[in-house]
Here is the input.
Amino acid sequence: MADATAELERASADIPLNKDARDVLERATALASERGAAQAEPTDVLEAITADRGSSAYQAIKTLAGDPKAIDPHAAGIDGAPGLPLRQLLVNANREAQVLGHYQVDSMHLLLALMYSDARATSVALQKAGLTLYDLRRHLQTGAGPNVPVAAGVYSTQDRALRRKPLVSLRGALGISPFFGGLVAVTAVSGIFLWFDILPAATRIVTVIFVTSGWITSVCIHEFGHAVVAYLGGDRSVKGSGYLTLNPLRYTNLLMSIIFPVVFLLLGGIGLPGGAVYIDHSALRSRIWDSLVSLAGPIGTALCALLIAIPFLWPGHYAWITQSNAGFFIALGYLGFIEVIAIMLNLLPIPGLDGFGILRPWLSYSLQSLAIRYSQLSIIALFVVLFYFGPVRMAFFNTALQVSSMLGIDYIFVAAGQAAMRLF
Here is the structure.
């Protein structure tokens, strides 16, 4: 059984099978193993179809030819002919799916492949039962029985379902980089130092390490959010680029990922989840998916903010705060505050930020091109406004403080954390 199962996995490695087809093939593999064969043959697949009442192929045979159990491939009188390799049968089935505009191989496509002349035993048996490739394809597309007229443009529910592009499987695509593990470890260790006040003379330095490593960890999660949704949406390139491993070294953009964020953090200012994942927008399934890719980053940051807020939202959390661990709550509260700022900034509809990315797919190509050209200039202008225009700055930070307060983070933690982060 193990050999036949392994052969099935090898044969179907790059063939997009739906559950219906996989169930049939697994049953066929079991039949092959029972007779001591290393892999399933077309006769095994046909036997599996005629034994599986739930498969679409079984129902098609029943509609077009009567009782599926009456079909016996061994009665064709050509059992001694060389069997068609399972791999070739799956290739033929996949070709049928592609010709019909389907994204996955169903048991119906397997049945169509069993009608090919190179699968002699099964094709003869199916033809004797009165089935033809034309009738099977017509039934798959329209759901109609033999000699039943069908209006133009009428498609079956099954056909419409198979025409929908399926989500890409994440199996084998995700990973965790040692660099990300190191960031989490640094954040945890510095948090322990703050909680137990292990280095009271270096509390400010430990706070900077905790907040900075925690913030970079959230940047990885932010960018990972973009990448995983892009992968599900059809862009396979993000896997090759290493974006699905949470590796901070992969999310690099000198200006947005390193220079701006570090300077603003050390000034006790703004935490901007910059980073950069380069998406092949042309590979995405639709404009909706394109917008979801941009939205996924802020959602990742929001999840980080909610995780940070748990101790502050817990009833009676002030009872936990002591003179020795106050530094931890100050650092954690400030980290939560800059996560809130990052969310607010990224949701602004300004070129270069995720808020604009959500809207971008719905704009004309000329506007998109213009926005991309001036995106970095737009972000620089945003920070100039936030730092030098008092009313705008006050409105923005007051809103951030209100949102932080809703998360249980009092202003006292934010103010103390900001003071601790000011190294210059």
Notes: The radius of gyration is 30 Å. The chain has a mean pLDDT of 86. The longest helix spans residues 203-232.
